[in-house]
Amino acid sequence: MLDALAHAGRHAISYTDEGNPDRPLTLHAYRAETYAPNRPVVLVQHGMLRNGDEYRDFWIPAADRHGLLIVAPTFSNEAYAGPEGYNNGLVLDEAGSVRPRDAWAYASLGRLWARLRAEGVTARERAHVFGHSAGGQFLHRLLSTQDHAFIESAVAGNPGWYTLPTFDKAFPEGMGGIGLDEGHLRRLLAFPLVILAGEGDVATDDPNLPGGEAALRQGPHRFARASFYVEAGREAAERLGAPFAWRLERVPLIGHDGCAMSAVAASLWFEGGQPARAELERLAGRRAA
Question: Given this model, what pLDDT does residue 1 score?
Answer without folding.
Answer: 60
